[in-house]
Amino acid sequence: MININKFKLNRKLNVNQQNFILTNYIEDFIKYKNLDFLLIKISNIFSIPKNNFYQDIRIFLCNNFKNSEGVFFKKFSFLNSIISFIKSIAFLFWILIFSKRKKKNQIKFDILVDNIDHEAEAFRFLSFVKLFKNYSIISSRKLNINCNYYLFEKYKNISLKIVSKFFLQLLFLYCITFYLSFKDRTNYFEIILLISKKIIKYEDIFTNIISDHLIQERQFTTSSIKNYIFKKYGGLKTALFQRNIAQINGPGMYTFSDYFFSIGKKTHQQYIKCSSKFEKIYPVGSFFLNSVEYNKKQSSEIPKFDLLHIASNMNYFQNTHEGFMDDWYEQFNWIKILSNKFPNLKIAIKGREGDGLKENIKFTKMLDNSNINFIDSHKMPNKISDNKFHFKHSSIHSYAFALNAKVNCTWQSTMGFELLSFDKRCIFLDPGGRNIAHLPNDAYHNELKVTNYEKFEELFFKIYNGENTLKNVKIDDYCLNSINTHKKIFKILKNS
Fold this sequence. Notes:
It is a single chain. The chain is of the alpha/beta class and 496 residues long. Helices cover 41% and strands 14% of the residues. The chain has helices at residues 15-30, 33-46, 51-63, 78-97, 119-129, 160-184, 189-208, 224-232, 269-273, 287-292, 324-341, 361-367, 399-404, 415-418, 443-446, 453-464, 475-478, 485-495; strands at residues 65-66, 71-72, 107-116, 135-139, 149-151, 209-216, 237-241, 256-262, 277-283, 307-310, 347-350, 373-375, 407-410, 426-429, 449-450. Helix 2 (33-46) runs antiparallel to helix 6 (160-184) and helix 4 (78-97) runs antiparallel to helix 6 (160-184). The radius of gyration is 24 Å and the shape is globular.
């Protein structure tokens, strides 16, 4: 018997060793006989081949692995299976109560955009989808912007015809799942519920709307199940554009899509290391950069810093090895050392609104008694400054700050690659060279990163003084010029 609750990774091992152990365990777990029995049952209920479940389960397990402790979340414990059983039954009755009786004819679009959760996300896609004759954006909430969207809200209005087909069979399956969860002391409900909800969601959506292509930006919500149902109802290809650098044992693991639009000629390689699967890979530049930077005027209010650190808060899923957080704090210490040694330099750390950096006590203490500015607001605040934080300037995105800075640096931001397409170098800070979950120690990544303070200071002043430090860097390997990325993707999809 494989008990997922007893699995624990040794965080003293390097990330690649941990990844080998974790991925092998996941493969053993998803093929375990009792889970396999449940997968066969749900496969028969929905008439979907069992093999289409595996990639989604892999992503789900990886998303629910607590890197900071080397264990899976407690939701898989048997005690939680009681809660999950109640949740599963409640879900069935919820969709039955709020189901609809009237069937609509399927509407065909040229392009569908999936996984939109708020208006800012939808807005990023508008300049792209308007290249097509017609489009629809699949949203989980009402959008107060002028766009065509399909609302899928909390599993309401599912077709009664769909619900009646599987209601009793799922009810029986959930009872079997409870018995096997009790027997194996492992909560299988979370996996069975994941599959059930995903199938029901996309069966309902794609019977109402369909298109030739389905595109999205979040790599950790890609789905083999969605891919299968999309094509079942007439779709041709699913597509994903690269938004982030893939992380071993984190976001980017097991990514699944027909087409992958990478920002550079070699940026897909990290995804392949993360067991991702794509039919075709197209280097096109940054979709996100094309959306937010080339479609707006530069603000004259953006200050010019000598050094800008593009930062974000670290969470349990990024914390991949023992000493990870010590290294992450150390890179900020490098910034403080540079500021103290050269007090005339204008230095800022650019966070994101709500990213938690301002609440990080250890981080904020490091900024005490320094000349470093910290900016995390995307709106001009009412309060101009306080004792610790300076909010004198703000913008919708960090690109404007980065493009206006003399030198940029970061821990792992994709902007480090994107800035290269403007011939602006961004220094990746990797104390000790241990952040290999994002930036492996190979020729490709070593070209951009420094592993000690002395190298950081040396490279900073080379860039600051106008020296060309990109002579050995093949910029297109990291990010192509992105001014026409939308048009490139449009042309590929139309010709495919």
